[in-house]
């Protein structure tokens, strides 16, 4: 009898494990009442907890924008800090609903990993940082042959690094860690000469070092790193909600709708602004998407438009002071461009 | 399967249902069927879900170009190598740290274990403190202690600590001259092998002679002379073919020579120290398990205390020591996966990176599980052979 009992118990356990079939992500999210958002374990400007333990940064605010669109309440987000290695499995397995974690969009991730990137919230490129005090003569990445390079494992950075040194016929010694804090600590302790990651990340990491002024970011950018949020494949509705939240942020900036003036803008004479803010008579834009018609109002009220988001987290309003550069709107010579909301 | 058996035995139904043997067979068969069905069902589920989520599956990815570099590798590896080779590099790194760790842990463990039974108060207490400290700290903390507490605070490469024989120690690791074997150096290795073979032969003959006549022969010194002397003689005869590649200061690091990374060092030291504490306790228990009468009888025969330990106590203690020692070796091998915390490229680290770059989590985890299982089974098998040879042969 004992054998049977064990057998049945085993079968029952397996049955429970396998029955996690998925309905639509929007229904799941609404049922549980919040969005589970995968972020980094702490990268200043993108996703890092502040002194009160609240997550701040472009990536964290993007999830708040989606929550504002879905619930009309930006606080209905729970954050899951993930290492570079954990991030895709967490999304694939359904542990998180959005991966908003300074992640580079590549074809392999779109196809073989079963993800859908929704767009590029930050155009970045990989760079190098060195301690100028310890290495006074070095002012170009091409002088780095023989150096020990600190890098985070499981990233496109790790692959670009190998390609760059190989194509320039230089030697290097990779010092690879799984977590960002471990890489930071090893670089700060002098375990390696060079730190490589996305250039925006280097500026953020420099602030956390013991003596930020000693470190310089070298001029070379060795790769394209379009960073953006991703969702699982196979749920077009959720994919559209997240994608159009991003476009709404851009569209709001383009139309001059800000956190401060969004209520006044509702009464604007411009048909385009009225349409975007859901003030047109019998509009179905929001409901067709699966959210309420004032979704853009909710987004902008909660986090501001894309420009405000950028300046607050990484631009002039932040310690990072990164210029808009190619992240400016297309109307100002940048790459940020949203298809029309109509 | 089970139902067929029942049908075949149909005629003797009355006694058959109550036959404990048949019942036991029946229930075992039911469990096997359920188990196989369960595993099959899980596999189908995984495949179906992966397809539904458009995630690549299968083991074809192992042949793809890895594209990332690994800091230390015992075999030729570059970013052009395959994912499969990257996993093998990690596996070899795991085996290296496990093997040297097991050897060192065993040596430290035996010394500490015997030290705990010493007559000398100070030695006894030092050994007790060692065991209590290392046995009661999680291994991950011991690794961090060596990595962040000891090796990271060493000076940078430019101010390396100079050690004898042109060796250097700095926060990037331990550097020592690498031997470069010139032409004709094969003679030295042959001489070494011959020396070892002759030493073994001498020891055997001496043992036989002592058994037959009671006369002793200075085996240790003869063996030492053979094992060291013969290669030295060959070295001189072949025209001194050995040279050394010394570590030199370059722009960033020391280059040349042989480099041992701080990641390897801290993992190796931490695993050795940690496991040695457990081995010490096993050794102490083993020695305590040998009846006191054995020691007294040996003393009555006029043996000195060193000889009593070596000839009488330890051989008997080994029978008690080896089985639990095996599980400590397995623990050490499995604990080596903690390397991931400090960036030593062991199997978990490289297979984890492959898993992440290809996104094939199920396959990656299956490979890791299978490899650790095989490693552990091989270790067990080897220790079982040793145990069988040591076991008491009853007449």
Structural commentary:
Chain A: Belongs to the bacterial solute-binding protein 3 family. Chain A: Residues 1-23 form the signal peptide. Chain A: Keywords: Signal, Transport. Chain A: This is Amino-acid transporter subunit periplasmic-binding component of ABC superfamily. Chain A: Residues 34-265 form the Solute-binding protein family 3/N-terminal domain. The complex is a heterodimer of chains A (342) and B (395). Chain A has two domains: 22-123 and 227-332, 3-Layer(aba) Sandwich (D-Maltodextrin-Binding Protein, domain 2), CATH 3.40.190; 129-223, D-Maltodextrin-Binding Protein, domain 2. In chain A, helix 3 packs across helix 9 and helix 3 (58-71) runs antiparallel to helix 13 (295-303). Chain A is built from 14 helices and 14 strands. With 342 residues, chain A is of the alpha/beta class. In chain A, the strands form five sheets. In chain A, strands 10-9-11-8-12 form a five-stranded mixed β-sheet, with helices on both faces. Chain A has a three-stranded parallel β-sheet with strand order 4-1-5. Chain A has helices spanning 2-18, 25-32, 58-71, 87-92, 107-111, 156-167, 180-189, 199-208, 236-254, 262-265, 271-276, 285-289, 295-303, 306-313, and strands at residues 35-39, 48-49, 55-56, 77-81, 98-99, 115-117, 122-124, 126-131, 147-152, 172-177, 194-198, 215-217, 225-227, 230-232. Chain B has 395 residues and is an alpha+beta fold. Among the domains of chain B are: 2-52; 83-154 and 261-390, MetI-like (MetI-like fold, Orthogonal Bundle), CATH 1.10.3720. In chain B, 66% of the residues lie in helices and 7% in strands. Chain B contains 13 helices and eight strands. Chain B has helices spanning 2-8, 13-17, 20-52, 83-115, 121-135, 139-151, 186-213, 219-237, 262-288, 292-300, 305-335, 347-358, 361-390, and strands spanning 161-163, 167-170, 173-176, 178-181, 242-245, 248-249, 254-255, 258-260. In chain B, the strands form three sheets. Chain B has a four-stranded antiparallel β-sheet. In chain B, strands 4-5 form a two-stranded antiparallel sheet. In chain B, strands 6-7 form a two-stranded antiparallel sheet. Chain B is globular. The two termini of chain B are 45 Å apart. The mean pLDDT of chain B is 86.
């Amino acid at each position: 009898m004992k054998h049977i009992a064990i057998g049945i118990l085993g079968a029952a356990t397996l049955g429970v494990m396998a029955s996690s079939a998925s309905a639509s992500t929007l229904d799941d999210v609404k049922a549980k009442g919040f969005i589970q958002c995968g972020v980094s374990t702490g990268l200043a400007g993108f996703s890092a907890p502040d002194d009160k333990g609240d997550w701040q940064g472009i990536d964290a605010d993007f999830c708040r924008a989606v929550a504002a669109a879905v619930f009309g309440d930006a606080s209905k987000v729970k954050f899951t800090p993930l290492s570079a290695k954990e991030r895709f499995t967490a999304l694939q397995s359904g542990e998180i609903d959005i991966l908003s974690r300074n992640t580079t969009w590549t074809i392999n991730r779109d196809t073989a990993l079963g993800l859908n990137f929704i767009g590029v919230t930050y155009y970045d490129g990989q760079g190098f940082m060195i301690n100028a005090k310890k290495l006074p003569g070095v002012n170009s990445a091409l002088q780095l042959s023989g150096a020990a390079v600190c890098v985070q494992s499981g990233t496109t950075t790790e692959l670009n690094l190998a390609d760059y040194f190989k194509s320039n016929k230089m030697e290097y010694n990779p010092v690879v860690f799984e977590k960002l804090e471990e890489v930071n600590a090893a670089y700060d302790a002098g375990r390696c000469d060079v730190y490589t990651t996305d250039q925006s990340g280097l500026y953020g990491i420099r602030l956390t070092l013991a003596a930020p002024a000693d470190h310089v970011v070298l001029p070379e950018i060795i790769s394209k790193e379009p960073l953006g949020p991703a969702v699982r494949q196979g749920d077009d509705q959720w994919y559209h909600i997240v994608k159009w939240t991003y476009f709404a942020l851009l569209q709001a900036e383009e139309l001059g709708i800000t956190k401060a003036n969004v209520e006044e803008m509702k009464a604007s004479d411009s048909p385009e602004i009225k349409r975007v803010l859901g003030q047109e008579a019998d509009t179905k834009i929001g409901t067709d998407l699966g959210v309420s018609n004032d979704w853009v109002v909710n987004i902008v009220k909660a986090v501001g438009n894309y420009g405000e988001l950028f300046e607050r987290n990484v631009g002039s309003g932040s310690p990072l002071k990164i210029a808009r550069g190619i992240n400016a709107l297309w109307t100002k010579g940048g790459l940020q461009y949203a298809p029309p909301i109509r | 399967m089970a139902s067929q058996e029942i049908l075949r035995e149909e005629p003797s139904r009355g006694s058959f249902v109550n036959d404990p043997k048949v019942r036991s067979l029946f229930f075992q068969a039911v469990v096997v069927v359920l188990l196989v069905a369960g595993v099959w069902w899980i596999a189908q589920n995984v495949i179906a879900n992966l397809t539904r989520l458009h995630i690549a599956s299968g083991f074809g990815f192992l042949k793809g170009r890895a594209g990332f570099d690994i800091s230390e590798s015992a075999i030729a590896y570059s970013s052009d190598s395959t994912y499969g080779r990257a996993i093998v590099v990690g596996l070899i790194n795991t085996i290296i740290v496990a093997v040297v760790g097991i050897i060192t842990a065993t040596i430290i463990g035996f010394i500490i274990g015997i030290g705990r039974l010493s007559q000398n108060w100070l030695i006894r207490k030092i050994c007790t403190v060692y065991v209590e400290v290392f046995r009661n700290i999680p291994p991950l903390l011991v690794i961090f202690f060596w990595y962040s507490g000891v090796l990271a605070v060493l000076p940078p490469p430019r101010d390396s600590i100079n050690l004898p024989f042109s060796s250097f120690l700095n926060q990037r690791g331990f550097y020592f001259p690498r031997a470069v074997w010139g032409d004709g150096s094969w003679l030295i290795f042959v001489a070494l092998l011959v020396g070892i073979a002759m030493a073994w032969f001498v020891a055997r003959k001496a043992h036989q002679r002592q058994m037959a006549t009671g006369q002793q022969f200075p085996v240790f010194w003869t063996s030492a002379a053979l094992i060291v002397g013969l290669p030295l003689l060959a070295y001189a005869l072949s025209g001194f073919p050995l040279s050394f590649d010394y570590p030199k200061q370059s722009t960033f690091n020391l280059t040349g020579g042989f480099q041992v990374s701080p990641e390897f060092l801290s993992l190796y030291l931490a695993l050795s120290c940690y496991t040695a504490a457990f081995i010490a306790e096993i050794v102490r228990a083993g020695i305590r398990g040998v009846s006191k009468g054995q020691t007294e009888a040996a003393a009555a025969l006029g043996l000195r205390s060193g000889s009593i330990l070596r000839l009488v106590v330890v051989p008997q203690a080994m029978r008690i020591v080896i089985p639990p020692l095996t599980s400590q070796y397995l623990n050490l091998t499995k604990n080596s996966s903690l390397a991931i915390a400090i960036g030593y490229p062991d199997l978990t680290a490289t297979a984890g990176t492959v898993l992440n770059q290809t996104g094939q989590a199920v396959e990656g985890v299956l490979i890791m599980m299978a490899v650790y299982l095989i490693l552990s089974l091989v270790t067990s098998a080897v220790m079982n052979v040793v145990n069988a040879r040591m076991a008491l042969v009853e007449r």
